[in-house]
Amino acid sequence: MLIAQLSDFHYRPKGVRLFGYVDVHAATVAAVDWVNRHQPLIDAVIVTGDLVNDGDADDYAALADVLSALRAPYAVITGNHDVRGPLAEAFPIPDAGVDGKYCWAREFEAIRIVGLDTLVEGQALGTLGPSQLGWLDAVLAESSQPTLVALHHPPFMTGITFMDAFPLTDAEAFRAIVEKHGHVEAVLAGHIHRVIHRRFAGTIAMTGPGTAHQVVMDLTAETKPRWVMEPAGCLLHQWTPQTGLVSHAAWFGDYGAQAPFHSDHRTVPIGG
Ligand SMILES: [Fe+2]
Q1: Which of 14, 49, 225, 246 could tie 25 with a disulfide, CB 3.0–4.6 Å?
Q2: What confidence tens digit (pLDDT) does each residue in 41-99 have?
Q3: What is the Å distance from ligand 1's center to 193 Cα?
Q4: If you measure from the C-alpha of residue 93 to the centroid of ligand 1, how many angstroms do you get, rounded to a whole number?
Q5: Which structural domain, as residue segments, surrounds residue 213?
């Protein structure tokens, strides 16, 4: 069972460049293509929020069109850049989990994924809220199947000061619920546009890279948010009954020819 985690498309339609220079349409098409060509085949795709940049209904429709090329079944969750109404219209779920939130639980072969909604419209921070947390507790109690819990805002401080300014406000209440359910294999987040892992509630929590632009690697007290065009990529979560969940980061793009390991491991001097 192989699950790709794509994140933070910040989609805008073909011909529009985000910030004047990021071709997010081409980046999203490239991500879909990468997933489709991957060997072994990818069985499911989870998109961890910030599907579009500006919340436009037309952008959601155009994104749904791009994602319709995915060969694997996929599911999405909200991010702080999303707007719930048009998102739900483009990516309908059978019924809103609770309080009109875009949350859902779905089985992808052996793995169950619970998608949560941290969106507080118009704000960059995230909140689950007591009713959605109660729903999560009940949904996790329904089944002991290996489960991934997906939410946009990571439930931990990352050390990147300008991103920690927009946290998950009820991370502690979320932690207390996840801790009760030992079958949660991992908590998957986006938002940070970088790969970060942290021990969390008896499981592991991680954030994935963006499929287009990345957040600058900065562990100082700098408060000014900045993007950078480091390589785009995704997380690949492989699960088997024997290994449990093993998560990889993978980068899109061409990094040159593959070279075999040599039987002769001697260091060759430069120019030698
Ligand atoms: Fe984002």
Answers
A1: 14
A2: 999 999 999 999 999 999 999 999 999 999 999 999 999 999 999 999 999 998 777 89
A3: 6
A4: 22
A5: 2-251
